[in-house]
Amino acid sequence: MRKSQVLNKEDIRRALTRIAHEIVEHNHGAGDLVVIGIQTRGAYLAERIAQIIGEIENAVVPVGIIDITLYRDDFRKRLKQPLVKATKIPFPIDEKDVILVDDVLYPGRTARAARDELPHFGRPRTIQYAVLVDRGHRELPVRADYVGKNVPTARLEEVFVRIQEVDGLDEVTVEEVESLGTEE
Fold first, then answer.
1. What is the DSSP letter of 31?
2. Which pLDDT tens digit goes with each residue over 10-29?
3. How close are the terminal C-alpha atoms of the chain, in Å?
4. What phi, psi does 86 have (nearest 5°)?
5. How far is it, in rounded angstroms, from Cα 173 to Cα 58?
């Protein structure tokens, strides 16, 4: 199995800082921003992005977590017994600019599922999508508004995002696999 590191700890920090600056610039500040991370790693990346935005704007940016397991159109095919994690959005999203954060954008199903779940919590002014890695190979018409790194991959490769809070280190690797799977 071939493995190559495409982002290290410092690269991830720089990418998240750049994303945070782009979000602030696009939204003319942090006044109406809320950041919602998609379980699991997206939730931790959302915390980091919100913290950086807070430092840039000297503001507190609300952060939530969303689990999209039951909103995926392929969950029955992928999981016999889905593992549903917490969704915590303890603030109103009506008329807010919602930044959804995920680790990897691949076919687009996770982004679509998150977009479909959000109306249960209110009606945002905008929904924007930030990802650490966009690996291409879209199956749905989804694009990220903010991308840390575009990583062209072959279909028999997977992108693994490892973050300190879950995995004990920060890195992104591309690894060749024997059969097709989806990390999104």
1. T
2. 999 999 999 999 999 999 99
3. 21
4. -70, 145
5. 34
> What domains can you pick out in the chain, each with its CATH number?
31-153 (3.40.50.2020)
- Are 60 and 98 in contact, with CB atoms under 8 Å apart? no
According to DSSP, the β-strands at 63-66 and 97-105 are unpaired
DSSP helix/strand/coil, 33: strand
Q: How far apart are CA 47 and CA 16, in angstroms?
A: 11
Rounded to two decimals, the pTM is 0.90
pLDDT tens figures, 59-85: 999 999 999 987 555 555 555 655 667
Residue 7 carries which side chain, given as an amino acid letter?
L
184 closest CA partner among 42, 51, 56, 63? 42
- Cα three-residue angle 122-145-15, rounded to 5 degrees: 115
